[in-house]
Protein 1
Amino acid sequence: MLAKQWLENARSVMDNIENTQMDNIRKAAEAMADTIEAGRWVHTFGCGHATIPVEEMYPRIGGFVGFHPMVELPLTFFTRIVGEMGVHQFVFLERVEGYGVEIMKGYNFDPRDCMWIFSHTGINNVNIDVALEAKKRGMKLIVFGSASNAKGKTTRHSSGKTIFDIADIVVDSCAPIEDASVPLKNHKDKVGPVSTLAFVTCVWMTITTVAEILADRGVKLYIHPSHNVPGDTTAKERLDEALAEYKKRIANV
């Protein structure tokens, strides 16, 4: 039964993350905690389906202020499939060297910031552009992706480096490099990708660790509460407080 096979594959990826990546997740979380405690930003970036973990972490219930999503519409909104902003254009754009340099011109950064990038294979140019620009600005670069499985893949960037080569801290998503994980009879290509599940797993393992570190330091977190719980009379007040804090901090970005 292919549904169970996918579930077993997904569990295996999550088990591998737990068994091999806890130290790296802790290192990433400590860097992010230092940034957030300083009143600065963990900037988050990805292309294609690698924007899903960016959108998952903030803003959403259980997330907290300190993470700044950088979502470039032409690199994520390709659900029309063909026509305007379709898949063909997206595949082209994520490989255009220099595009990431232009993206970075639109923001103000600080050396106390972190740049957190999601890239499954680590070889495409926009992500590498953003990574190199972040390093030029003195930011700590944290990269999540299928690092060990991507070894040996040739970068598309003129620097000769993959994004994993540039990173200060790497967390391996442990997803297979081909992403899809379930073979299908009479077909060459597999179905059932697992990279998104791997990314989201790593995201919440990291962010809960960041929260734990900051709480232990006595830092107040501005958490987005659920506003759908009957009887919670202060949820809107806490949400407004979190959004006000975000608005105050984002003014200089």
Note: The CA atoms of residues 63 and 224 lie 6 Å apart.
Protein 2
Amino acid sequence: MTSNRWQEERSGLEAELGERITLDALTGPNGLIGREALRDDAGGPAGWLIAQRKGGHRHSIDDVLTAWYALQNSPQVAKHLDLGTGIGTVGLLTLWGMGQGARLTCVEAQDISYRLLNSNLDANGLRSRVDASQGDLRELALGRKFPLVTGSPPYFPPGSGVLPQDSQKAHARFELRGDVGDYAKAAVIHLAAGGWFVLCFPTPQKQRALAGIAAAGLKVVRLRDVIPRETLPPLFTLFACQQPQDFDGETTVEEPLTVRHENGRLTEAMAEVRRGFGFADGESHGGYDP
């Protein structure tokens, strides 16, 4: 069940924004953070929830797997940076995996996403562990270096499709405030020696990502395509990058990760990802919305 603070947070958001807000499970109740189980208000095991607009941009499998790939490639770190964080999905999932001593720094430009991000920090009790700021990542100059930087850039250039009327959806899907190359440039500025930059991008546009990463002065250490369902082509690709002084080899192309079997059931690989975020078999990144 959701805690009282979450119910109050949702009621306040719905009154403020005048629209339906859902509360969805970001992490499950079965995971451990820093070897200690999280507890809800009643003392029982608790996961983290995320408030989302019912009719807005909503987190999906690319966010989950970007965070997972960051945790697969980076060693445990005390701090990391998430670019274009939206409502917080990638950054918070990565924070979960890094343990209780870790801190997250994140930046988001959109008013509505930044508003929801702050609710997600407050209601999950994470304010003391997250430095969130509102601004354009293309102008970001924190003066600090991070051993891990993550990002889930918008996928499509302006004019390549129908721009959604909803501003949150439009900015999440289309490159209205920078493209994948801008994410890579922001990462380079803030990446510590030996650090990792992890991102996702559509597989059909893989060359755009590779070009943007290279232009920023980074090298792709390894990449992995994600297939949404058996028999379908890859949907998006995960990239793990480092600076040239930290990696001078050839890119490793890993075996694709398939999310679902042809019958719709999760593959064991995806079930293992889900277990890593605290969900037991048979559970999903689903909602607590009544």
Note: The radius of gyration is 18 Å.
Protein 3
Amino acid sequence: MRPLSEYKTLVFDCDGVVLNSNQLKIQAYFDVAIKFGADENQAKALVRHHVMLGGISRYPKFEYFLREIMHQHVTEQAMHVLLTSFTAEVKRLLMNCEISPDLAALREASPDAKWMIISGGDQSELREIFKQRGLHVLFEAGIFGSPDNKDLILDREVSLGHIVKPALFVGDSRYDHQASTNAGLDFVFLSAWTDVEDWQAYCADHQIVVFNHLGDLI
């Protein structure tokens, strides 16, 4: 990682970085699975799959749930039921979850950098929540999410010149590290709110800079 002042773009994941929402989303996956008709073990299997694929969008996770856990066909109707239920639950949770208390100080410490969100969460949902909570003004370079994955978004935004390097990605999952590194961005891992069980070993193996909270970047 370079000195913070050298970065022209700061890219943030949302869940576990800007919002303390990882555990809330775990509960949302469990509750939606139960509501759909899964038993407790099947709901827990979806949660394990979600945690294993941290940073990946909900769409392939629910496809896996239908096909591999519930042993059902992946139909448009079933996906609509799951996604609608999950969206409603997540909106309710994200409107009330904790926001990183370090955002204002970090913004002051990086006045010349453009800020961007690239999340596995639903893009329209994120934009609505960030606007309602008054966070959208911090991320002038854009708020992006699924159904596009992070690899696609990073490649597109770099190509369009919206991510200007040197750029730093702040994330809390393996996928955040892999996608940002593939796109040529520096990466730091935030540990305080991550739901990655073996993050210490992963970060050590890949020589990743680790901080607890956003304020530690300053």
Note: The two ends are 12 Å apart (CA to CA).
